[in-house]
């Protein structure tokens, strides 16, 4: 019996002594796989040295920007297009703790702290100490960023969260202008599915300001935010997203605005076709004939499967009396086939609606709006109430159908814009 006890104790001691080595070996596999996962069309990631010890390991990784346009822009801005990261890893019982610093960029005080479980899930905190960057020349600037953090969680399945905190950013241009951002905060969760980020993100900004070389205000805003929500339908292979922008207390060279809000959405887009079209545009903003021919089947697929675009709400408040509000939607029904062979079939296929409101104060403040409203009132397309004017219409069979029953072909409205040189 005593021998069994001694054997068990001995086995436990042997396991305890060997465990850091096992953790180090498992961790090496996890870390190498994670670095490989970071490879993309823009960045190449590689482990160039892995010195594994008993209780700790020393790792050197390299990240190279291989996108030629991005790499060239980094050089122009005086920033490196290759980063070498030196990581000191400690082997724990069930996790690996690491502290990583940039080896070849002494003037960029970044530190990454991570805790990686043996299953590959990782908690991370990226810290930026106070940073100043100077770009010489007439178009140069001095950039100053206060101590900032980016933290969150990443799983082996690609799910991730993040929290961003940047107290202040100041850019002093050599021409005399200045831009100041303060209270930049963000949070998000989601994952990359195919070429799309699926999840939620929110960015908040306490204040932003731009002043001229004479120190007069050109633009400012306060307490503003941007929210992004996207989803992916696995069965239909379609992607949808919603973008919500809220800007408050705007100061511009043309006057002050109390608030601007925009809620824009698009959805039911064929994900494969949409991804290919985005890639084509990113690679060639001015498409060649070959690019257009390549895009044709994806455009046809996009329309054939149907999609929608919508302004769920757009509202501009200049002040309490002056307000503009609009909502509209455009739907391309499923089965709108071969549009590239017959573009004329697109307009009759569209459905949707529009609802727009102008307050009395806004119309009084801007006479050019009054002229357009007077013409719409004569045509009985717009209704007036105690607070302002409203126009509502449905999009059907290529025409806008108004409440009074009058129809205006959509082509008649688009023709002036198409005739512009």
Report the sheet-strand fraction. over 45%
- End-to-end separation: 98 Å
Q: Element order, helices and strands?
A: HEEHEEEEEEEEEEEEEHHEEHEHHEEEEH
Quickly give the structural class. Answer: alpha+beta
* Major sheet size, sense and barrel closure: 22 strands, antiparallel
Radius of gyration: 29 Å
Describe this structure as you would to a colleague:
By secondary structure, the chain is an alpha+beta fold. The chain has a domain at 1-129. The chain is built from eight helices and 22 strands. It has helices at 2-37, 68-76, 271-283, 289-305, 346-349, 360-365, 367-378, 410-418; strands at 43-52, 56-65, 82-91, 95-102, 110-117, 122-128, 131-135, 141-145, 148-154, 160-173, 178-193, 196-211, 217-233, 238-252, 255-270, 307-317, 323-332, 351-359, 383-384, 388-396, 399-402, 407-409. The protein has a 22-stranded antiparallel sheet that branches. Helix 3 (271-283) runs antiparallel to helix 4. The termini are far apart.
Set down the secondary structure blueprint.
Elements: H1 2-37, E1 43-52, E2 56-65, H2 68-76, E3 82-91, E4 95-102, E5 110-117, E6 122-128, E7 131-135, E8 141-145, E9 148-154, E10 160-173, E11 178-193, E12 196-211, E13 217-233, E14 238-252, E15 255-270, H3 271-283, H4 289-305, E16 307-317, E17 323-332, H5 346-349, E18 351-359, H6 360-365, H7 367-378, E19 383-384, E20 388-396, E21 399-402, E22 407-409, H8 410-418
Helix pairs in contact: 3-4
């Amino acid at each position: 019996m005593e021998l069994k006890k001694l054997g068990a104790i001995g086995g436990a001691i042997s396991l305890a002594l060997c465990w850091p080595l096992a953790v180090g070996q498992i961790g090496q596999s996890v870390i190498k796989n994670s670095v490989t996962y970071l490879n993309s069309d823009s960045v190449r990631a590689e482990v160039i040295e892995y010195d594994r010890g008993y209780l700790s390991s020393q790792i050197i990784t390299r990240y190279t920007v291989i996108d030629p346009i991005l790499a060239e822009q980094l050089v122009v801005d005086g920033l490196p297009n290759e980063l070498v990261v030196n990581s000191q890893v400690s082997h724990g019982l069930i996790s690996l703790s690491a502290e990583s610093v940039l080896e070849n960029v002494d003037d960029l005080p970044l530190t990454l702290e991570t805790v990686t479980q043996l299953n590959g899930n990782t908690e991370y905190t990226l810290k930026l100490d106070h940073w100043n960057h100077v770009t010489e020349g007439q178009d140069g600037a001095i950039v100053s960023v206060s101590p900032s953090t980016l933290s969150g969680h990443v799983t082996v399945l690609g799910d991730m969260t993040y929290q961003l905190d940047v107290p202040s950013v100041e850019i002093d241009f050599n021409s005399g202008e200045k831009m100041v951002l303060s209270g930049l905060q963000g949070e998000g969760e989601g994952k990359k599915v195919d070429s799309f980020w699926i999840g939620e993100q929110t960015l908040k900004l306490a204040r932003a300001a731009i002043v001229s070389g004479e120190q007069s205000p050109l633009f400012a805003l306060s307490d503003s935010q941007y929210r992004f929500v996207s989803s992916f339908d696995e069965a239909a292979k379609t992607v949808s997203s919603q973008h919500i922008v809220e800007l408050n207390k705007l100061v511009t060279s043309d006057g002050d605005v109390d608030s601007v809000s925009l809620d824009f959405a698009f959805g039911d887009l064929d994900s494969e076709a949409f991804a290919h079209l985005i890639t084509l545009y990113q690679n060639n903003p001015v498409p060649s004939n070959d690019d257009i021919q390549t895009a044709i089947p994806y455009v046809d697929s996009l329309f054939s499967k149907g999609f929608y675009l919508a302004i769920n709400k757009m509202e501009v408040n200049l002040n309490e009396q002056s307000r503009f509000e609009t909502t509209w939607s455009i739907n391309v029904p499923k089965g709108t086939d071969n549009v590239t062979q017959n573009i004329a079939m697109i307009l009759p296929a569209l459905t949707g609606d529009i609802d727009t409101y102008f307050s009395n104060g806004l119309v009084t403040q801007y006479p050019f709006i009054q002229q357009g409203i007077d013409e719409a009132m004569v045509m009985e397309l717009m209704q007036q109430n105690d607070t302002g004017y409203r126009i509502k219409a449905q999009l059907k069979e290529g025409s806008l159908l108004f409440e009074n029953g009058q129809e205006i072909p959509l082509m008649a409205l688009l023709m002036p814009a198409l005739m512009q040189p």
